[in-house]
Amino acid sequence: MTTTTPDKVASAPPKSSGPGPAEWLKENLFSSWFNTLLTIVVVAVLAIAFWSLLSWAFTSAQWQVIPNNLGLFMTGLYPRDMHWRIWTLFGVVLALAGVSWGTLTRNAASLMTRPMLIGLGIAIAALIIIPALPRPEDAPAFLITPFAAAILIGLIAVAVAAAYIARSVTQKSPGIAQWLPLAWFLSYIVALWLIGGGLGIEEVRSNDWGGLVLTLLLAVTGIALCFPIGVILALGRRSDLPIVRGLSVAYIELVRGTPLIAILFMGQVMIPLFLPEGLRPDRIIRAVIALTLFSSAYLAENVRAGLQSVPRGQTEAAVSLGLNKPLTVAFIVLPQALKIAIPAIVGQFISLFQDTTLLATLGLIELLGISQSVLANPSYLGRYAEVYLFIGVIYWFFCYAMSLGSRRIEEQFNTGH
Amino acid sequence: MAVSETYTDPTAAQNGSGDPVIVATGVEKWYGTFHVLKGVDLTVNKGEVVVVMGPSGSGKSTFIRTFNALETYQKGSIVIDGVKISHDLKDIESIRREVGMVFQQFNLFPHLTVLKNVTLAPIWVRHWNKAKAEEEAMRLLERVGILEQAKKFPGQLSGGQQQRVAIARALAMKPKVMLFDEPTSALDPEMVREVLDVMRGLADEGMTMVVVTHEVGFAREVADRVVLMDGGVLVEDAKPEAFFNNPQEERSKKFLSQIL
User: Fold this and answer.
1) Are B166 and B103 spatial neighbours (Cβ–Cβ below 8 Å)?
2) Which comes out higher in pLDDT, residue A213 or A174?
3) What's the burial of A375, exposed, middle or buried (CB within 10 Å: 0-12/13-18/19+)?
4) What share of chain B is helix, strand, coil (3-state, %, to 5)?
5) Which of A104-118, A119-133, B189-203 has the highest mean pLDDT?
6) What's the order of all strands across the beta sheet hosting B49-53?
């Protein structure tokens, strides 16, 4: 808590001369014979595991399955000659992500933390080195083609430039930041148009959508839809109106008592029953509906926890000023509740993202589904470890990005209370 | 801090003459089976400052919270500026607009800046435009002595500053009466004075005020009347000098002997 008159001659805290490396080791790893033993055992186990992983990765693993099917992993059966549309979409999303990052960090000391800079550096170095690695004349590209690597480097440059520009622009006029959600919404419409076609470009049937693109589309749609539904359910559960409250509780408890896989299968079979004859929504839409209905129940509970942690005095102060109930909820209770619930909400989003893998069992060829198709190809028989490790890293990357983003959003909303 | 405002109605401020703003008659309230208010009568006239004292658990906070319907009551009647408080929602909001409330725990909105705390209700309830609301808010913040903190968040202010913002926030609605529910009880001793000074300034300007407090000095100097509540009943209602120097009721004497 700061005071009104900041102390101009603030005395610097005494320089803490931290322990040297040797002292640190002794203190943290070898403080007693038991800890010493533990350290040795753990280090030995880690070393063996890491060594065997490395030796497998560089000797017996046959990575060719990845580069040969990279297009499948990324886009499934999406027509090759339409891939420029996916690249365009990727560019739009990266640029917008850069803009968002720049906006979110406008009050932070620097655009990127040191680990982020290092990560970015490694990624760019890898994109330059890997395609340039020596290989036999007729062998296919190793992991990534020079062409794709060049495009990726270009897109990263665009994103970083967008972040820098957005940061300096929003530092001068912070009001622009409020248009970001609209920009994301528009980019979603553009994404649907680029993937599905129509309106001037050739149509691509949803049966041909697949791979990582489909996974991301499912996850983003599910997240965007389950958030408002979850908030409404949470508010409904705390409503004074018995019917609204009863319905919300019934919905939430019913869904939370049912496994997701059951809901997904029911969604495929039952959603058409509720709709008029002849109107049979695409199975991707049915999958998204089921995923959304499932996640919104869990999200509602996360939001409810946030709502309950807002002190009663906040509502009292708001209604004392003459604000009616909807205004009190919209301006006072909900913003504070959502802020408190950010970690839980993002956790639910991460779950939803990972739950998209279950759609493989329904025959959707999202990232896991297409991987299973690749593994069914006789030329790549038995390449499980390589393929699953590869897609595991992809899932990890996106989930970690989400949790990084959530931490940044929390900092943004921190107003010192 | 400087409170430089002309008195709006000096006679009212001194005498508490004029129309009654609050008329409470035979107010009774139960929490389950616990009888908190056992038929309380109180009339507060325009421009009067009434200090409510009493031991904790005497129902004094509950009583003033019925004036803006934060608490319901089961029997009797409360009329605020000619409007009876009922369970009709429309009525309740129109009454709350006219009754400012300051809480023991400040209850500022932590996610909004000081300025937005003050302008929120005028903009959304009174439907003022933003410029007008901000101008009025800055005037009020200057008056309570925290103009330079307008862009900060409540969490960055001291308790005394937060309570002064809370007063400015309530005043921004231009209420006809201000309720203070133990406004200095949660403050460090050195911050009590800055809040009481603001309240004294308000009283001097002729604001109608009902103050629940244990600050005897404030009650002696500022109040037009002091009332004592104990066990859900109003024990004594007197001018401050009479109340503190010559209490009539046995329970008043006992209470005063404990706090003086």
Assistant:
1) yes
2) A213
3) middle
4) 40, 25, 35
5) B189-203
6) B99-102, B177-181, B208-212, B49-53, B225-230, B233-238
The verdict on B188 touching A (C-beta cutoff 8 Å) is no
Q: Does the beta-carbon distance from A4 to B161 stay under 8 Å?
A: yes
Residues A165, A101 contacting (CB under 8 angstroms): no
Rama region for A143: left / alpha / beta (φ>0; ψ in -120 to 50; rest): left
Tokens (6 digits) for A222: 């599910």
pLDDT, tens digit, for every residue of A220-273? 999 999 999 999 999 999 998 999 999 999 999 999 999 999 999 988 888 777
Distance CA B106, CA B201 (A): 19
- The Cα–Cα gap between B122 and B170 comes to 10
pLDDT value of position A141: 59
Query: A264 and A286 in contact (C-beta within 8 Å)?
Result: no
Average pLDDT, chain A: 87
Contacts of A310 in chain B (CB under 8 A): none
**Of A11-25, A39-53, A208-222, B227-241, the least confident:** A11-25
Provide the CA B253 distance to its chain's centre, in angstroms.
25
* Average pLDDT rounded to a whole number, residues A165-185: 87
Give the pair of three-digit tokens for residue B141.
């913040």
Instruction: Say what the ipTM of the complex is.
Output: 0.89
Beta bridge partners of B233: B230
Distance CA B227, CA B251 (A): 12
Phi, psi of B233 (to 5 degrees): -125, 155
Transcribe B177-234 into DSSP letters. EEEEESTTTTS-HHHHHHHHHHHHHHHHTT-EEEEE---HHHHHHH-SEEEEEETTEE
Those residues of chain A whose CB sits closer than 8 Å to some CB in chain B are 1-4, 311, 313-314, 316-324, 327, 331-332, 335-336, 339, 413, 415-417
